[in-house]
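haha ok so turns out i had the wrong file open the whole time. this is the CORRECT one, sorry everyone. sequence first:
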Amino acid sequence: MRLVIIGAGFAGMYAALSAARLRDIQGVSPEQLEIALVSPEPTLVVRPRLYESKPETLTAPLLGVLKAIDVVYVQGSAETIDTQSRVVGIVAAEGVKKSLSYDRLVVATGSRLARPDIPGLAEHGFSVDQLDDAIALDRHLHGLADRPALNGRDTVVVAGGGFTGIEAATELPTRLRAIFGKGVKPRVIIVDRNSAIAPAMGERPRPVIEDALHKRGVETRLGVGVASLDKSGVTLTSGEHIETETVIWAAGIRAAPLTAQVPAERDNSGRLLVDRDLRVPSVPGVFATGDAARAACDDDGNFALMSCQHATRMGAFAGHNAAAELLGVPTKRYHQEKYVTCLDLGEADAVFTRGWEREVTMVGDTAKKTKQEINTVWIYPPKAERAAALASADPERVGDVSGFF
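then structure:
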């Protein structure tokens, strides 16, 4: 029997850990149930941190962990999914193609930044979506120091006033001052079509966010969008033209394109609709998790968000349940009733909320220290030691934030 997991992000990593944990509990050997993880590199990209400087350091190796728990690593990019034949087509190094059959499949392919067909965006826009994108932006920012202080060199426009846009924008003044040196005052502007900043977070944390933007000197243009980009800068739908050499696109994400090859119903973000076991109901043998899946996380009408917090726990349930079906043991119903957010607001500032109502419980330095602990400890892989790695993947404990309630 073979369980194949596509993707080595947070959901894919925990799917592998959790499946291996159940296999170990059931006393089944790796020869009896092979667990294979497919990814271009055996590396976890710490995507929630890509708005920070030195993005090339924001990865964590997975090969040691996978070896410790007897998960087979298959290097390559999954290109096709044939759900009738139960085969995944993979493009390996130097374009070599191969196929991998499965008895159960976990689609943990994550998400990608939505890039609309705005004139000039592809040529002149940057992002912090993927590791290569963040590295390209970082190099660009450092290269600005060698250019004349003209034509908006010191101005950065961030398109998108959601979680990623705010974290990038509030981090930029510190990053740019370190690059330009004393005497230069960077200008950072957030542009968003909504009438208020951070629309998805609601009204409760908004005053804290607005105050932080004011303290960081971050301007906003709300109720307008980006109409076009060119070498001179960005033109807004209001007609305003802002001279800048740096536009960062941070407006919306969609499930990775590979999910479209699974013949099943999807939501407006391209996520596969799954049941409470994270199974794709209409496609036998296929589970979806993380940003690839739209899953109910409680009985109150709340659905998992495209976030690291939900992806880790969803991954653990998906891996467990896919292995459980093969081993003939009961599955576990995915649930994640507790929900918190911790939004970085630059320098010694952050805001921590709990519950779907986003009740503010920590701000300032206290919240910042919590954010740093989340970013540098909690979301990293477990140590490459078998017992500890397997113990970390209990679906009922992964992503447990009850300590904040």
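The first strand starts at residue 2 and ends at 6.
again sry for the mixup
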